Amino acid sequence: MDIEQFRKAGYQAIDRICDYYYTLQDKPVVSSVKPGYLRDSLPVDAPEAGEDFQEIADDYQKFIIPGLTHWQHPSFFAFFPTGCTFEGMLADLYASSTMNPGFNWACSPACTELEAVMMDWAAKLLGLSPEFLNTSGIGGGSIQSTASDSALIAVVAARSLYQRRHPSVPQSSLVIYTTTQTHSLGLKAGLILGLSVRALEVTWEDKFSLRGETLRKALEGDEKEGKKPFILLATVGTTSSGAIDNISEIGAVTKDYSDLWVHVDAAWAGVALSCPEHREPLHLNAINEYAHSFCTNFHKWGLTNFDTSTLWVRDRKYLTDALDVTPPFLRSAEGDAGTVIDYRNWHLSLGRRFRSLKLWFVLRSFGAGGFRDYIRRTINLNNLFASLVSASSVLSLMTAPSLALSVFRLDPKPESASLNSSKALSPETLNDLNRIYYARISARKDILLTQTVLNGAVCIRFAVGAARTEEVHIRGAYQLLGEEGRLALEEWRKAGQNGNV
Amino acid sequence: MDIEQFRKAGYQAIDRICDYYYTLQDKPVVSSVKPGYLRDSLPVDAPEAGEDFQEIADDYQKFIIPGLTHWQHPSFFAFFPTGCTFEGMLADLYASSTMNPGFNWACSPACTELEAVMMDWAAKLLGLSPEFLNTSGIGGGSIQSTASDSALIAVVAARSLYQRRHPSVPQSSLVIYTTTQTHSLGLKAGLILGLSVRALEVTWEDKFSLRGETLRKALEGDEKEGKKPFILLATVGTTSSGAIDNISEIGAVTKDYSDLWVHVDAAWAGVALSCPEHREPLHLNAINEYAHSFCTNFHKWGLTNFDTSTLWVRDRKYLTDALDVTPPFLRSAEGDAGTVIDYRNWHLSLGRRFRSLKLWFVLRSFGAGGFRDYIRRTINLNNLFASLVSASSVLSLMTAPSLALSVFRLDPKPESASLNSSKALSPETLNDLNRIYYARISARKDILLTQTVLNGAVCIRFAVGAARTEEVHIRGAYQLLGEEGRLALEEWRKAGQNGNV
Fold this sequence. Notes:
2 copies of one chain form a homodimer. Chain A has 501 residues and is an alpha/beta fold.
């Protein structure tokens, strides 16, 4: 493809992306393809001779678009949102157009320097302590791929720090603390590193938040048994229910347990710190006082395209002491002199994409004000959904709405005509009912939600965040979910009459 | 930014990328910016109000482009090349435009399915055994971020397999084998996982290739000492000199040491397997017979934009046994039924970009024939460079050229007029001389090469691969490197007359 062919194909790509967004809301959210659909449609080998790009571009429309789940669809309420803005796309395009692997300063100064500045912009947008800024010269931030990577890096750095302080402690005594609500990244870090993971109990009464006393008791117990908890993966905004670990209480406990590294994973909720009114509920002061490392994913609820997991540490030496490998072919005059950051020593890999460009484009184009407006608008939309569910005769919220996430279930009130019974349902029956309910919802193609289990209760998550979601989509979703609830009740009742329940 | 504003900004981005490539060869390869240049140019905070995108796009040209090292410049011969094609850019743009995190089949079927098919296309292009194909249902391939990630995953899978077979062996006995020439990814995997790394010696006489006998002796010695080598990170095409570990001999040894996992890191050289004439020199048969895992980076010498590190394993269960974590919110009907691949269990993170699109666009647009043509053309260009150096009176090749990589140094023949001496130089003197020489080369902005050290000898690497490099650039580089060599000799001689050498 020569330059003029690229111009033509590029214009067409831009036009087709415009078409995609003009028609997005008319598409089903969920693909109807069956497993194996694509393999059946494609040749078994790469072609021997090159093909015309027009054919390739047309095949993208023909084969790929129908196999997509449309995460930017206004009726996408599953998982957490994934950031996708025109600004992010353009930044990805520009970054891809010069392709440098950014592993040290010299291999593209702009890449390292913009990342250092953008991490400071982002830190200040969120109200992080100056200690986390790259300008501090001690702490600092860098962009990782995912929150799993960020947590893994934190665990590696914490283990390395702990082992330097306590060289005689065997690795088999080390323990990673999480809670029962921590994202799978906790277990995965344990699997990868071959370390034990202990999930501390949290309760429904505490809204699944880790309390200081629970942590203290666990530390005391493990100390007696000779175990060495060296890091807590605390969460601000869990995936299941948006629970917020009590970082203030946790921080107070670590005054007596100074070996415990506190990593705060705010992968989803962290960007809400941009709004002053959410800072204290999300324990910003305690994060600033106690957290050794803090992560949020701008590629979730932060309008920035994947991958933009921002990770800050209070002391960059924790990372470089754990991860620095500098063979001769990676040495540079600037790196040797220590006047620049060589980001390769702040993460797992060597090469890295020019990801800070996305943050630059997004933060400038939206402005801090526009960024906060978007966060507040999505929270308001979720509050609307929660208020509708609260007034429903068949649906119930399972927890108070957390920012832009609600967790609910089908839970007919005894007086509900659909239930046709005045007795409260048993937990098992409610779970059966909600399995039927979720199967009905997930069979639909015009909306997408995901399920979860909270203390044994089968629940459904409703996460707002797609940039095109408006009030009309929330009201439409609520109506649809209510109807499916009534139909699920009917299905369940009929099954019962047939002796299947 | 609304859809029409995006169309305008998108067209402009395409036009500006066209301009970039029309003028690329007139730019210096290396940026002249000084550390801190960008921070001094940018505000200390994100703006409060959104800015016009035109201003942002203009600032990209004004502040970012001057701070780039131009890896696609035809006179870029440093590190290894990084793939960057118009096809790759367009695929990145399309992938970014719908942004799905691809962690399981249901969250975008096209994303998982295309990756499975593309990994099979790529495997067949390289001549890998059918056992590595996804269609085998046993082995399979997936796209990782970097060769460091791929190697780390291999080590985690190998450790997990070893520990299941030998549950009583403590982690502290485990050893990762590398060679003294292995990329820093070996040491980094050890650092991350807290495992010992033993670098086996390789010799100049063996062209820095790991031989079977060296491996056997190491295994015998470690067995006696109770150490448990569980993985060998073998390399086909080392970074320093393009050395090729003798996979055939290594494989034969593992017949007696069946616990040793053989990971073949062919990050750079692997794509040359697309050409039948390079298969045996690169030990393809032995890879197919013995390797547990095999990695090559299409984002290096394979015309595909970063990140596209392709990793194949002989048994996918090795990965999923080591990495599968499936909480309720990640369950899906298709995943539960086992009819689809959920790639999240094949790598370290959860989310992943839609990277297979790049391979699809590149392999179709170039065709297998066009891909091989590019590989052969770059090898021929390096052979031209090597033949010029061989005939030089001041430069010497340090090893036979390996594919598209030459390693050379300033090494004046005794009869050289510039040397003005008939005595051969000592190794220390030659190193001093080459430090002066490399300092001169790296002070230039119109060419970029990187240094290395081979068995104590300071050398310079010349890696061909930028898609726009032609014979004229090779001849120009040779002339420039010869002139700098003569100037370095003069500088050295003058310093000697002043008593500094």
